[in-house]
Amino acid sequence: MPLKHALLGFLNYQPMTGYDLKQHFDRSIYYFWNAKLSQIYPTLTRMKEDGWLTMEVDYQEDKPNRKVYHITKTGREEFQRWQQEPTVMSPIREPFLIKVFFGGRLKKEEMLEQLRRQLALHQEQLVTYRETAGKAIEENVEATGLVREGVFWGLTLEMGVKYEQGWIEWCQEAITRIENLAD
What we know:
It is a single chain. By secondary structure, this protein is mainly alpha-helical. The protein folds into two domains: 2-84, Winged helix-like DNA-binding domain superfamily/Winged helix DNA-binding domain (Arc Repressor Mutant, subunit A), CATH 1.10.10.10; 95-179. 69% of the residues lie in helices and 7% in strands. The protein has helices at 2-13, 18-29, 37-49, 73-84, 95-101, 108-144, 147-179, and strands at 53-58, 66-71.
């Protein structure tokens, strides 16, 4: 399960609370894998039961106590095993493509509106990747000194950029083809 392994990956860097983990998700891998606190906390509990983590309570006087999770030797071994395991291709599950597949039932302008909306969404995401995500990686590398890891963080960002560029190109081609359709 990728959530467990993403959590192990983050805890490999340093011990964290569930809230800290959520913040790391949101600042780094959110664009291709996200998680909610309602998923993170039960998963941490199961991982602790599996022996992959330990948890210590950080008692605070003026604030709620913090549960800090630490990866164990068994957790590191599981993370390494998972990283070395071949990954199978995930099937594409894209709701918009179902709309396109049945787009012949819509008026030409209705389908063009749908495609233009998709095009704008992917253009916005591309800008986010290039500006926000790229800056976040640079800041994380600078803050942590994890230069080697930064190369790999950058590779995931580059894949996101190429993914969005592919969508943009496809949307533009689809718009042109539908505009040229006879009514």
